[in-house]
Amino acid sequence: MKGIYSALICSFDEEGNINEKGLREIIRYNLDINEVDGLYVNGSSGENFMLSTEQKKKIFRITKDEVANDAKLIAQIGSLNLNESIELGQYVTELGYDAVSAVTPFYYPFDFEEVKDYYFTIMENVDNDMIIYSIPALTGVNMTLDQFDELFAHPKVIGVKFTAPDFYLLERLRSTYPEKLIYSGFDEMLLPASVMKIDGAIGSTFNVNGKRAKQIFDHGRNGEIDKAYEIQKDTNDLITEILGNGLYQTIKELLKTKGVDAGDCKKPMKKLNDEAVENAKRIAETHLN
User: Domain map of the chain by residue range?
Assistant: First the structure.
């Protein structure tokens, strides 16, 4: 389960329906060109929180069918609807996903006991390993080392997707739990995270930049900091341009320049205007050739 995982982008048509052909092409690009170790399916990058339960199931089903056993698959099943999380967890387990993951419950100011009950209830009803998904900037849920202790005590919790800039906490988690899987979630901070001896990383820009991500990770883990730094610098130049042009929309446009039918984003995400589309083409020519 270690290595580089793309937070899988999904292709949608102009009406917001899943474009199966495009989704399969994105998957193949990730496996055949980016050569990632696995896919993190139906996370933020897959526009998950704008999807119906049936759309989520369809993406899970298509992805497993296309990947088969060629890579590891982690299913993000977190939802404010706990019953949906359980239903999706049972569904992907039957499909043969290697693990489930769940974002901490968000929007409402849940206390830790509620967060803990959410995870434990999912795990009581889903016969699969769990990877906690911590992304405080979007959920407002900041967990302490002691709180992670309580979650990690559950035998089904095998690790965490750590999308936070608190590298002191990251180091404390790494040193306290050498047996747990720790994935970095910030693409632009992969090098310092790799120095902390993380087990892998999960990122949206890996859909177009997976090979560089693997190089950063490998060099960082091996102590080859100068080599890793140069690749991280180039990667961050790319990330800066992507963020300035529109994150998910630009990743899809970059994939299109590679012949991948990456489709549109779901509303209320906007379409790129002509200038931004041309800028995406320039980004591809500058950074992806």
Answer: 3-222
Active site residue 97: no
Q: Are strands 72-76 and 38-41 parallel, antiparallel or unpaired?
A: parallel
Peptide bond just before 268 cis, omega within 30 deg: yes
Which residue among 133, 183, 256, 266 is the active-site one? 133
Determine contact, residues 220/191, Cβ cutoff 8 Å.
yes
Which residue pairs from 107-113 have beta carbons closer than 8 angstroms and sit at least 24 positions apart in sequence?
Answer: 107/80, 108/80, 109/140, 110/141, 112/143, 112/147, 112/150
Mean pLDDT, range 137-163, rounded to an integer: 96
Count CB atoms within 10 A of the CB of residue 259.
9
Q: What pLDDT is recorded for position 137?
A: 86
Fold of 3-222: TIM Barrel (3.20.20)
Q: What is the pLDDT of residues 203-231, one digit of tens each?
A: 999 999 999 999 999 999 999 999 999 99
Residue 285, pLDDT > 90, answer yes
pTM, to two decimals: 0.97
User: 133 catalytic, yes or no?
Assistant: yes
Q: Which of 100, 20, 88, 80 is nearest to 53 (CA)?
A: 88
What is the tens place of the pLDDT at every residue in 69-118? 999 999 999 999 999 999 999 999 999 999 999 999 999 999 999 999 99
Mean pLDDT of 107-131: 97
Indicate if the alpha-carbon torsion angle 268, 273, 277, 282 is positive or negative: negative
**Is-contact 101 161, C-beta < 8 A?**
yes
Assess contact for 100 and 77: CB atoms under 8 A.
Answer: yes
Rounded Cα–Cα distance for residues 89 and 73 (Å): 13
216/210 Cα distance (integer angstroms): 10
- In tens, the pLDDT along 239-256 reads 999 999 999 999 999 999
Q: Angle 70-264-281 (CA atoms, 0-180°, nearest 5)?
A: 90
Q: Which of 72, 161, 214, 266 is catalytic?
A: 161
Chain centre to alpha carbon of residue 224: 25
